[in-house]
Amino acid sequence: MPFPCDVRLDLVKSKIKRLTDFLDVYLKIANVHTVDFYTSDIWTEFVSVPPETVISGVLHQQGGSSREKGSSVWDQSQKINNVAAYLQITRDHSLPNLGVCTPLDNLWQGLGGDKHKETYLKTSLFMNTKKSHEVEVMSEIVACFARYSNIQQVIDIGSGKGYLSSYLSMQYGLNVYGIDSSTTNTIGANERNRKLERYWKIYQRQIKPLNQDSESKQRNENQIHNVKDFTKIKEQNGSIGEPHKLTQSGYVQSLVQTPVSNTSIDSGIYKKNNVEMSAEIVGSDKFYGSDHTFLELLSTDALDASSQVRQRKHLDEKEKERRKTASLEAKAKRIKEANLYSPITQHVTSTTELHDIISDIKDSMMVGLHTCGDLASNTLRIFVDKPELKVVCSVGCCYHLLSEEFELSENSQECCQGSWGFPVSQYLRSTAWHCGRNARMSACLPFERVTFGHGQLPSKSLFYRAVLQVIIKEHFGSGKPSYTVPQTKVKHVGKIYLKSASFVDYTRKATEKLGMDSSKMSDSLIQGYYDRYMPRMKELEAFNLLKVALAPCIEGLILLDRLCYLKEQENVEWSALVQLFDPLKSPRCYAVIGVKK
Least C-beta-crowded within 10 Å: which of 77, 257, 391, 400? Predict the structure, then answer.
């Protein structure tokens, strides 16, 4: 097994236990819904320091020493009062510091791959920076595993627009089936692949002269070597005739008079005289690429006239048949290459039979680049259950769409046919542990992007929604807490912030969408709510940064649960959790990889 040292199952279980113990205390922060921030006075309930202290602590690391002995995150009233200690404890419980991830460099070394390998197909020409980075790194990993496992077939689950699938087929020649539940995505993937194939052909024509220059140089060196060998043979037999000369390009100027070739001479050339034939063939690359160099270097003086006639007739027939066969083979190859990537529309579950989707399925590798919600978990289940699948490489996303078996809510009663998205490992399921939707939503927050200044949270739109909830509570909720407002109304405000000219306009559109009549509310009344809470907007910003700091911990638990699931399987020989991508470019950067025995 060429892969890095396997992380033991008992170590993974111990890290899961450490994370669950930690989150039992801190998960309450992540499960706060921003909608209820002002209606439930969240800041006063959870934090005892000014919002500026939290903002500077998270974004600029100005919270003081985090290593003070005995420093506590909470004060006596169980509110956060030490931002530095909070940040340190969240870092200690994030994946990079838990000691269970396999370094990507170690994986490259084990697989014999080259992460700096020059590629012919430049993804940056037809993908954005994020997607280009993801596709190039993951495709190289997939290609390396395919080589080691002697696999030519790849199944891309949740293939979406087909970026990864197209690249794997064109760059590495793998036979890829891209399966996605959206017909729109499949149609788009077909069209995009058609354009990429056209680009690929143009690009190949552009680089062909460069490759030919390199090949020509090597070929000429071989020609010189072959001619010297032949000369040595003739010298040993005392049959060297007229002195010969070699040009710098390796062409024979006087040794060859009228060569005969059964692979490089068109039938029309035979009609030329000896001098013309010699000039044509000596200057031909095909001549020097022939497999019959010794025969081609012989002078026609060595053959009688009758044998030349019989040979030409025989070679004409043989050449025609060879070219006919070559043409059919080239056509078949073009048809096969044109179908290296096959987009398929199909909804995949843990019970999906691959043979029903792919008729010619062989030993395959299953991959998924940012498969949403339960699909990432089901990808692992399918891999374990199907004997034709030998390797899996899955990068999940959209944790808020996961179904939770032990979630204490009405939504947890949804039927998943026993295939819940979280947890999947027997170890974590035995504890009946659950996160909650808001916590899973928090796990999607881009910690590195926010803390390193490469991204911002949508604070203004969240602020609008939180103030709107105050209006809903006071004018449409009969003074009751916001959670008693029908869930269907709370969930369907939608993304109308960018379509709104002001908070007043936003409120009008939102209440209409929720089926509420705001006509009795004046513009000045609505604007008054905005003016009242605007000074407290920093509280919301600061609290969301506390949730951002927790994101890697929650994501880590979800991913370790998946790794634990693979390690519990008897037919899986090696499995690992690997950071494939730069988190500044791609926040969901971890892959769960498994190889069967």
Answer: 77
pLDDT tens-digit series, residues 405-459:
998 654 445 545 568 999 999 999 999 999 999 999 999 999 988 888 666 778 8
Average the pLDDT over 324-350 and give the result.
70
> Which residue carries 């105050």 as its tokens?
470
pTM score, whole prediction: 0.75
CB crowding 60-94: b at 16 or more within 10 Å, else e: eeebeebeeeeeebeeeeeebbbbbbbbbbbeebb
- In one letter, which amino acid is 410? E
Report d(CA 392, CA 596) in Å as an integer: 9
Does the bond joining 583 to the residue before it have cis omega, within 30 degrees of 0?
no
Three-state SS at 149: coil
Question: By mean pLDDT, which of 57-61, 249-253, 534-538 is the weakest?
Answer: 249-253
Give yes or no for residue 8 having a pLDDT over 50. Answer: yes
Paired tokens of 379? 């990808």
Please report the DSSP string for 8-31 in residue order. Answer: PHHHHHHHHHHHHHHHHHHHHHHT
Contact 560, 16 (CB under 8 A): yes
User: How far is the C-alpha of 472 from the C-alpha of 465, rounded, in Å?
Assistant: 10
Q: What is the full DSSP assignment across 224-256?
A: HHHHHHHHHHHHHTT---S---B-TT--BSSS-
The arithmetic mean of pLDDT across residues 205-233, rounded, is 53
The residue written with tokens 């000896």 in the block is 274
131: which 2 tokens?
């997607």
Q: Which residues touch 299 (CB under 8 Å, ≥6 apart)?
A: 256, 257, 258
Q: Do 348 and 376 meet the contact criterion of CB atoms below 8 Å apart?
A: no
